[in-house]
Amino acid sequence: MPHGDDFLKRHSSVVKKNGKKTCEKCHLESGCTSCHARHIHPGLKRERLEELRRGAGLD
Ligand code: HEC
Ligand code: HEC
User: Fold this and answer.
1) Number of domains in the chain
2) More confident residue, 10 or 38
3) pTM for this structure?
């Protein structure tokens, strides 16, 4: 695994700091988007989920 255990929790700030270009060396953008959009994330506030759906172009 190239990422540490707590990476998922930190990844959004890593992307904000370094940009997603660095991720695209390994990840397809569609992989990011499908996780953001398809899953229901327990513990995410409704507004946050809507923000993510908007960001992914679903709403
Ligand atoms: C060197 C290649 C590489 C780079 C660069 C990379 N990743 Fe990954 N990433 C991986 C691999 C390999 C996995 C594991 C895939 C799997 O388990 O299916 C992974 C898994 C993940 C996961 C799932 C983690 C989990 O706990 O389920 C997320 C989220 C993620 N990466 C986000 C990012 C983000 C955001 C960036 C850019 C800041 C990034 N990655 C950069 C290779 C990379
Ligand atoms: C395993 C599921 C999963 C994967 C894969 C994933 N994310 Fe996320 N992402 C989340 C969750 C959950 C949140 C909301 C919680 C948070 O901000 O940490 C989020 C939030 C974000 C945010 C903040 C969005 C905002 O509007 O503030 C960014 C940026 C982001 N992800 C980028 C990426 C990128 C780039 C990738 C692909 C390299 C990726 N994510 C892959 C689950 C994932």
Assistant:
1) 1
2) 10
3) 0.81
